[in-house]
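Hey, resending since the last one bounced:
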Amino acid sequence: MSTMYIIFSIIGINFIMSFLITLSVYLTSLKYYRPLIKKDKNGNKINIHDIYDPFHPHDRIDFFSMWSTSFFCWFIKFISSFIILVIVNLHIRFLYKIHKNTDTNPEQRKQMKDAIVFWSKLFLFFNGVRIENKYPEFKDVYKKYLGDDYDFTDDKYSLVVSNHIGFFEVVLGMSLYAPGFIAKKDIKDYYFIGPISRAIHCLFVDRENQNEKKKIFDSLLERQQSFYNQKLFVPLLLFPEGTCSCGRNILRFKKGAFYSLLPIKPIICTVDQKSDFHLSVGASNVVLSYFKNYCHTINTIYVATLPTIRPTEYMFEKYKKYGSEKWEIFAYVVRKIYAEVGGLEEVDMGLTDIKRYIKAMVTGDYDPNEKTNYIPSNKIKKEHKFNRENNEEIIKIKSADNESEEEKNEKNNDFINKERENIIKENEDNIIEIKS
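The structure tokens again:
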């Protein structure tokens, strides 16, 4: 009798807890999925999700489906994650205590790396995150932007960069390279994650002080140079977009990863956009995304690990019009490689845009005259339709037959951007819809 009572009590508690977790995730997620319709000055209806499509989730939520899954999954994922985090904390602290030079001693570094890789893979496994390697064609794209004589065998790098889709690609990066991260200086004093962040040799910076940006770049440069001089053996992992996308776009890049002009190791993370649920975060937050994972069994992240990208003279000369400084040209080329090899759509959006989107969802306040930077640049074709004051104008782009395909695309893109600027100036009081 007591055994049956215990069993039914466990089932009942699990039933209630899974319901509460699912309900909380469902209600918190609704604002990202239900239509958010506003009107411009002309009374035209606008779906804000379309304006900020690169941050809008493209999966779906279904309460009963999520609840039925969380009933079986949430407890296993929660308990296993908690146990792993506790053990890894103790393990990393122990290694860091007995080995004081895990950043500069190769043997000690190997022990620390093996531990981080092992626990990271275990964490992904028990959270139902499956990693599937992809092997896209990249040589032609590399030669296009870096030169026909680009050396693919030189694979030295101090910096790993990845597109940012959420939380689990951070753990994925740790399972591959056991890197450090750029972190706020306050984190090293936190009770739980502070010792770990010090043990994996994060680069601590003062992000709050805008006057310290130059020092941050210099610290990053010094860290990378130390790696090449073999004074330090821990690479850094950076996300040059600076914020998360929905998983099918590549946002504009920030300066940090390219300031030094030193080689970088790119990894491309993508998800199945057609699945009912995937691990991209977009405008959501990583905490919500993590608990949302409790409501699903197995999810896949597709990973492409590419050869190191080094700046070349060919690159600086060929694409010099895309930046007044060398780091801008470097960032432009890396972003192009991400887009073409990874099949991602380039959008000129970033952290400012995602803040506007979140504000619109939370408060319902949206200025229809607010300019956004969303241009589906990867889907540009020879014919582009611009809806201007309810009159559709078709712009046909013609290129000379003797031009290369690359030159045609570059001229087309310049022409389209100039046309878009002219339209914006003439129609400041209207929302411009760009259809590909």
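Residues 63-98 form the longest helix (36 residues).

Sorry for the duplicate.
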